[in-house]
Amino acid sequence: MNFKEKDNYNFNDLVEIVKVLRSPGGCPWDREQTHKSIRSNFIEETYEAVEAIDTDDLDLLKEELGDVLLQVALHAEIESEQGTFDIDDVCDGICKKLIIRHPHVFGNVKADTTDVVLKNWDAIKMQTKSQKTQTQAILSVSKALPSLMRSTKIQQKAAKAGFDWETVDGALEKLFEECEELKAAIESNDIQNQREELGDVLFSAVNVARFLKIDSEHALYDACDKFTDRFASVEKLAEERQIDMKTASLSLLDSLWDEVKNK
């Protein structure tokens, strides 16, 4: 098939192109790939699509969504070659899932608000996955997720079982408590406990974010950008004043930081 003769391609063309690339007469690199060998590619392409969303770059988003779609097609083709499933089975599975989990659209269930929709979604999800307890629901949260995101999802599922603070005050007090325990671990030079207590601090901070309806991943993302911008300003200020940051005292650098922060 000469794909160059077409002016426009569709999803079926993508699937066929991937088949050709993976075929004996195709591309040596594509033929060698496995699920695990392109695992990081999948993550990278997804994050690049997310960056396009964050920057409101629609042209880039169109391109990056194509890269993500390529990853899906590759993974499906790898299994198609083994006779386990193909891209049609993937599409069939997600279509059935969407229909089952939207009975208010495709069935007779009434759901006029987002809260009701989400409640029904969770109930149907637990039923279809044969989950009878919230522990099973918590265990189903992917361990491959970024830890802040995973923490949020675990806490949300625990909260649905009633295991939650009544207000943000309780979550905040727990954060302070965990900070004190981390401080004690540092003072006692307990290396193993320091790691554990630091994890508890981060987990508790996510809990506070959840109560405040703040996405902890986004909050940390913004904090990274803010630090980067301020550091760049401090570095520029130090250069203007002929200050060597590597040899300058911490108090001097801190004063530059405060100066930049208060501008």
Q: How much of the residues is beta strand, in percent?
A: under 5%
Our measurement of the CA-to-CA distance between the termini, rounded to an integer number of angstroms, reads: 62 Å
Percentage of residues in helical conformation: over 70%
Q: What's the Cα radius of gyration?
A: 25 Å
What structural class results from the helix and strand content? mainly alpha
The largest β sheet comes out as: none
Low-confidence stretches: none
User: What is the general shape?
Assistant: extended
The count of β-strands is 0
Written as H for each helix and E for each strand, in order along the chain, the element string is HHHHHHHHHHHHH
Mean model confidence by pLDDT: 95
Number of helices: 13
Summarize the model shown.
Helix content is 71%, strand content 0%. The chain has 13 helices and no strands.
